[in-house]
Amino acid sequence: MTKEKPLQGMTAQPKNVEQSRTWTRAALTLDTGSMPSPQHLRAILASASLTFSLVTVILGLATGAWSQSATIATGMTMFIFAVYSFRFAWICFTAALTMSGISFQLFGLTVLPEQVLLTILVVHAVRSQLAIAVRPPRRHKAVSRTRLVVAGLLIVCWLLVLTAFSAFSAPSPSQSLRLVIWVFVNVLAVFVVRCLAQNPALLIKDALKITNVMLIVFIIGWLAANLSSSINIFVEADYASSTYRLKGLMLEPNLLAALSLTWLCIGFVYRASIGNGLYWSSLAIMSFGIFMTYTRAAWLILLALIICTLWTTFKAHRGLVVSGCLMVLPFIGFFVFDEATGSTGSIADTIQARFSSILDFETGTGAYRARTWEIAWQDIIRDGWWSGHGYNSFSQSHFSSETSNGTLYLGLLWLSLIYDGGLLSFLLFVSSLFLLWKSSLPHSAWFYVAFIVLSTSTNPTWFMFPWVLAALLIAPRAPQGSLELAQGKSASVYG
């Protein structure tokens, strides 16, 4: 019988499989030498955070900058705890995905909260990778791994093509290159999440919970705006009525609808792992939020997803009555709101009008989009199919008095791929998307169909959430206890 090779740091050799398993468990709890205990580290970080917060608040009181100082103190406290706890970092990161409408200046650059918190996840990913001495056996076929490698190479080539056209063809190279850097960071998030998501179901559970909490806060803000007839940070005025569209802290309502719907698709894929209770509560909360964004493309996919969910639940004979009741609750609340305020009639009329105008390209946003598509198509034909204009260059060269910022926005992603980087850019992106789809878990088609349809009205690739969610669908799931840690190393543990 061939002797097994001992683990690093072990002097004896396992004589049987059971002893080998015992040593594997021991490898996960190796002594870290003189490292402080987790309790000691937690106490040090808590003390440091409290001291920093108190000093910041005192300085704020002394200088009069109370609100700014409190914000900085809270942010730094959360940052310190996120560095220590992977779970806390992930919760903060998924909460930041709902805040794409918030940006700030950092060293002269405009950054989003999700981009800052990604740096903490990078730290946890590096710690986890350095701590692993023996990799678990691969559970995916080699062809699946090959697809992922090819998809990654295609995405990188797509970004290089965009970089070249943005640098040499864009009317404002600096603006285009800044957005290209954003997308580079988004692609980095895919690799980071894949490194950390050894058990994606745990990540998805917490992500859905915090996203639901954020949506409830947004919905409360939407209710307050409609009750008081006063706009606030969570809504924007609808162009065709006196009602307000829910947008939360996202840049626009369409993006909030895209975020909520794609999270629902992820929940549908993992609902056996996350539990029916969390999935159905998410479906009820996010469905109401999606309806209040007035995003018609999202309505269509949501309706199909609800029908599919009810059908599969009925086939399994589990919780059909409960699920039906949960789906009715938002609409009961809708009519109660109508009776209480007398103002919901305009909301209902707005929803009905949007349903009836889904294919209307003569008036409203339909006419605006049709006109932007026509202008972009003429530019492409004039300059050639293989000639790109630079990333998001359409807004740099076309202006309009109809929009709030005075520029036209090309919301159709599939046309903007050709406009920005030529036909080569389109082929690279679509090919990589197809390979990712083929390498994903069963039922992942819901996510990719939702992404394709929603990308007809907005460009979600600027932001991190579609990239992160795609990574969760292809993340490897290693059996617990199969990773062996190098001696003296400690990995980021979720919990």
Reconstruct the topology from this structure.
Blueprint (H helix, E strand, L loop, with lengths): L16 H11 L10 H26 L2 H19 L1 H11 L7 E3 L2 E3 L1 H19 E3 L7 H27 L4 H24 L3 H29 L6 E3 L6 E3 L6 H17 L1 H4 L1 H17 L3 H21 L3 H22 L2 H13 L7 H20 L10 H4 L15 H26 L6 H10 L10 H10 L9 E2 L10
Explain the overall architecture.
This protein is mainly α and 495 residues long. The chain folds into two domains: 45 residues; 333 residues, no CATH class. It is built from 19 helices and six strands. A two-stranded antiparallel ribbon has the order 1-2. Strands 3-6 form a two-stranded antiparallel sheet. The protein has a two-stranded antiparallel sheet with strand order 4-5. Strand 4 and strand 5 form a beta hairpin. Helix 9 packs antiparallel against helix 11. It is globular. The N terminus is likely disordered.
